[in-house]
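retry 2 of 3: previous attempt timed out while embedding adenosine-3',5'-cyclic-monophosphate. Reduced batch size to 1 and resubmitted. Inputs unchanged:
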Amino acid sequence: METTLVLIKPGGVARNLIGEITRRIELRGLEVVGLKLMQAPRSTVEEHYAEHVGKPFYQGVCDYLTSGPVVAMAVRGTNAVKAVRAMMGATNPIEAAPGTVRGDLALSIEDNLTHSSSDAEAAERELKLWFPEGLPR
Ligand code: CMP
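retry 2 succeeded.
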């Protein structure tokens, strides 16, 4: 069993895609074990994207993720990290396969609707950051 982090970014919330994205995750057989709609503090977002410090898009993604409410979701199941990444599709929606969230619902890399943890270590770090109160076992 693995638990991974999914963020629905401000564009996804604004487009009323919370239900559609969550529906796909649940239909796959994964369990939502943590869920919150929140205005993310800048400090949380900067720490979340720490690996991208210095890259040309770093400030822009931090601005974007704090521009409106986001949904933070903890998703659990067998191979949840890889399963969720595959369901979301390639980071750039133009390269994302049809049938994926981005391949079906997004067009631009700046607004690619979701973030999901890249591997088990990232998932552990990101879940602690977004769910500091902890998650059910
Ligand atoms: P995410 O999975 O949240 O991780 C970093 C985000 O930066 C990425 O999704 C994109 O939304 C955003 N981004 C913007 N420009 C780029 C880029 N050139 N390469 C990678 N990510 C980018």
